[in-house]
Amino acid sequence: MRNTLAIILAGGAGSRLSPLTDDRAKPAVPFGGKYRIIDFTLTNCLHSGLRRILVLTQYKSHSLQKHLRDGWSIFNPELGEFITTVPPQMRKGEQWYSGTADAIYQNLWLVSRSDADYIIVLSGDHIYRMDYAPMVEQHRLKGADLTIACMEVPVEEASAFGVLDINQDKRIIAFAEKPQNPSTVPGNPGRSLTSMGVYVFTTDVLIAALEKDTRNLNSSNDFGHDIIPKMIEQDNVYAHHFGAQDGRVSQDAYWRDVGTIDSFYQANMDLLQPVPPIDLYQREWAIRTYEQQLPPARTVSSINGREVVFVNSIIANGAIISNASVYNSILSSNVRVNDHATIANSILFDGVQVGPGSQLKNCIIDKHVIIPAGTEIGINPAEDAQRFMVSEQGIVIVPQRYQF
Q: What is the 3-state secondary structure (H, E, C) of the chain?
């Protein structure tokens, strides 16, 4: 993997995750009580043996850059290892990144000077665990110009993805980006083969494809809409089935695009299933993140008062539950839940304080919100809609530092 350069696309605005992305980039949104979304892609790189990583940032990137500095300054530049954030530098014109392909095109000087034989292009906003080494090896053995990681999804969900058709040799013979009528897997009309947004390119082929694309004035400069369909016509493009090879990661084959409030909420709730569909507990594939130096979490029950009830939930370091009840929820660092409050089916980010007697249900509370005593959120839909954003599935989102 030393001859492979990883490029992580982390500049998207993530507008469908608003208000969680109003003040931070989508890859920097907290997840699972202690992580940031980008930690999953970076962890995959780390355990896959990728030691040269460029993170292309753009939108409200301060929080993301701070997280990478504090949690991911782990490689040795003396050995040619690095994780480097690359903001738009306008080396190819006076514009911001206009698409996924354009983001890399504007940084071709970094690609060229890397002397890498292969470029693996990744998204910084997906939740999954994957060993990239078998995919790169397949790419090399096939003599491929491009290899796309893919997975099967129900056909009714496939319109949200790029959909592939392959032959018996795994060569991709057709590709459609978010088609209205997706093709299906031969012999299985209920399933479609879709792209995960994980690409391995042979470097010189990628450079040629990007330079050709930028000369097309009608191009949207996007991999799915422009680069991939044209490469399928003229280059060797293959599919790599996610979960088909073990590598070093246990094959839970879980992948989620947490691009909406409801998908983000559900991916968090997946962690609370009796057997979670994604394994965060494989010791040789630990998800790395920045860890504050905090005291252990604890519960507090008064001798003559109400007992703490803590059921099927996740609680991070520094959190305190005092004479309160927590059901099926995720509490991040430094959360404080005070006397007689009840939290159910909710996600609380760092530093949230819940006042005595408050009732929270089906909500996401962003960082550093102080909830007054007796407040109800997620109980009365009409009142919630007047104050907060409510998702299609009824999840109430309280923005960062909201003042009651």
A: CCCEEEEEEECCCCHHHCCCCCCCCHHHCEECCCEECHHHHHHHHHHHCCCEEEEEECCCCHHHHHHHHHHCCCCCHHHCCEEEEECCCCCCCCCCCCCHHHHHHCCHHHHHHHCCCEEEEEECCEEECCCCHHHHHHHHHHCCCEEEEEEEEEHHHHHHCEEEEECCCCEEEEEEECCCCCCCECCECCEEEEEEEEEEEEHHHHHHHHHHHHCCCCCCCCHHHHHHHHHHHHCCEEEEECCCCCCCCCCCCCEEECCCHHHHHHHHHHCCCCCCCCCCCCHHHCCCCCCCCCCCCEEECCCCCCCCEEECCEECCCCEEECCEEECCEECCCCEECCCCEEECCEECCCCEECCCCEEECEEECCCCEECCCCEECCCHHHHHHHCEECCCCCEEECCCCCC
